[in-house]
Write a structure and sequence with these properties.
The complex is a heterodimer of chains A (115) and B (114).
Chain A lengths: L2 E5 L2 E5 L4 E8 L6 E6 L5 E7 L5 E3 L5 E5 L4 E6 L8 E9 L6 E4 L3 E6 L1
Parallel strand pairs in A: 2-11
Antiparallel strand pairs in A: 1-3, 3-8, 4-5, 4-9, 6-7, 7-8, 9-10, 9-11
Chain B lengths: L3 E4 L2 E4 L5 E7 L5 E8 L3 E10 L2 E4 L7 E2 L9 E3 L8 E8 L9 E2 L3 E5 L1
The chains are: A mainly beta (115), B mainly beta (114).
Chain lengths: 115, 114
């Protein structure tokens, strides 16, 4: 089964600073990769996804992620953090098991933005 | 408005008292799934359903049951809840024919078992 590792359960950045959230996947075959965001007291929503087209993927709210096969990584970045970016972020990988198209989530990274 | 609706949002119950968390989606999605979210463990899949009358176990199915009698509904049943089932539960749905599709999540149901 596929798996993802998110480095850092908690990341703090200052408002206006670069946001970098790390995600590495374990697979010899490049999977489909996703980032979801969970704002406080809400469900998850899709931020962006990589599905074997462009390796640099742009998402909502100014976030982007780059798929790097050589590093088995899909790190999420945003040039300038905003207070509203404070949330928990989950990297996820598709897992084709008997045609069921399962998503396996990482353990999440909670982003705090300091004014 | 496209949405996944879960009820109840909050529930406190006692060990052994059967409960059901309902989930309904209005997007005509074939695929539905239940997850539980625990601090430091992320989201773990409990059960999923590819379509009506088709359900299968996820990673942590013990202590849970599901049914899929209608396309829009996918209730989660705890026959005899125990304290280790205290958690935040999410229902999600997606079009069933692709592994690149977006999962749509409900707002979550926070369950406490005393």
């Amino acid at each position: 089964a596929q798996s993802v590792t998110q480095l850092g359960s908690h990341v703090s950045v200052s408002e206006g600073a670069l946001v970098l959230l790390r995600c590495n996947y374990s697979s010899s075959v490049p999977p489909y990769l996703f980032w979801y965001v969970q704002y406080p007291n809400q469900g998850l929503q899709l931020l962006l996804k990589y599905t074997s087209a462009a390796t640099l993927v742009k998402g909502i709210n100014g976030f982007e992620a780059e798929f790097k096969k050589s590093e088995t990584s899909f790190h999420l970045t945003k040039p300038s953090a905003h207070m509203s970016d404070a949330a928990e972020y989950f990297c996820a990988v598709s897992d084709i098991g008997a045609g069921s198209y399962q998503l396996t989530f990482g353990k999440g990274t909670k982003l705090s933005v300091i004014p | 408005e496209a949405q996944v609706t879960q009820n109840p949002r909050y529930l406190i119950t006692v060990t052994g008292k059967k409960l059901t968390v309902t989930c309904s989606q209005n997007m005509n999605h074939e695929y539905m799934s239940w997850y539980r979210q625990d601090p430091g463990l992320g989201l773990r899949q409990i059960y999923y359903s590819m379509n009506v009358e088709v359900t299968d176990k996820g990673d942590v199915p013990e202590g849970y049951k599901v049914s899929r009698k209608e396309k829009r509904n996918f209730p989660l049943i705890l026959e005899s809840p125990s304290p280790n089932q205290t958690s935040l539960y999410f229902c999600a749905s997606r079009l069933g024919d692709s592994n690149t599709g977006e999962l749509f999540f409900g707002e979550g149901s926070r369950l406490t078992v005393l």
